[in-house]
């Protein structure tokens, strides 16, 4: 019941922008969730309370470029664990590992500092939204290249019709999302 209440509460602060960035796309804009301090706190607390559970508690939070940085850094701070950014290629100054993944048209590459996590670290991977799942799966593979265990992928929004959440679960990544926009 509580999850449904949080889901409904947060849903009303997610703005739908029609036909952006292309005609026919219903863009789910999470920025209104961040603008109101009470709403932002409810959002962050929903993640923090889940990951305070010893069975799910991470050693590190990894955030995906760029909105995953906003969420991940605050969640890591509240859990008193470290935060590592997974960036678009060419943005990190030190030695990196990289993972390329397919987009609808072309591909993209994300990077992580080679010393960002240690073998055996339990990592929470976080982003704002799951669409096709490509970025989150690339993040999972990067962390695993360094020997970390990705305990869960977390996001505010799931767009299940795009198939990403199913692909991620099929790829061995448990997921936790707060708002589902199936059929909306």
Descriptive tags:
184 residues; alpha/beta; Rossmann fold; two-stranded antiparallel sheet; 32% strand; purine salvage; Adenine phosphoribosyltransferase
Can you characterise this structure?
The chain is α/β, with parallel strands linked by helices. The protein has six helices and nine strands. Helices cover 34% and strands 32% of the residues. The longest helix is centred in the N-terminal third of the chain and has 15 residues. The protein has a domain of 127 residues: 3-Layer(aba) Sandwich (Rossmann fold). The strands form two sheets. The protein has a seven-stranded mixed sheet, with helices on both faces. It is globular, with a radius of gyration of 16 Å. The model has no long low-confidence stretch (mean pLDDT 95). Catalyzes a salvage reaction resulting in the formation of AMP, that is energically less costly than de novo synthesis. One of its GO terms (biological process) is purine ribonucleoside salvage. Pathway: Purine metabolism; AMP biosynthesis via salvage pathway; AMP from adenine: step 1/1.
């Amino acid at each position: 019941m509580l999850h449904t209440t949080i889901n409904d509460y947060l849903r009303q602060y997610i703005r739908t922008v029609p036909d952006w960035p292309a005609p026919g796309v219903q863009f789910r804009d999470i920025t209104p969730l961040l603008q109101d301090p009470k709403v932002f706190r409810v959002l962050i607390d929903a993640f923090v309370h889940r990951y305070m559970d010893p069975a799910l508690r991470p050693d590190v939070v990894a955030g995906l470029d760029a909105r995953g940085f906003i969420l991940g850094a605050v969640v890591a701070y509240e859990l008193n664990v470290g935060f590592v950014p997974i960036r678009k290629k060419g943005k990190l100054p030190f030695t990196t590992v990289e993972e390329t993944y397919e987009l609808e048209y072309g591909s993209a590459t994300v990077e992580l500092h080679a010393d960002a996590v240690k073998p055996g670290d339990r990592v929470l991977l976080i982003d704002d939204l799951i669409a096709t799942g490509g970025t989150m799966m690339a993040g999972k593979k990067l962390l695993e290249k360094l020997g970390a265990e990705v305990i869960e992928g977390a996001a505010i929004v799931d767009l299940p019709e795009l198939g990403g959440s199913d692909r991620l679960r099929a790829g061995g990544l448990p997921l936790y999302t707060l708002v589902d926009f199936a059929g909306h």
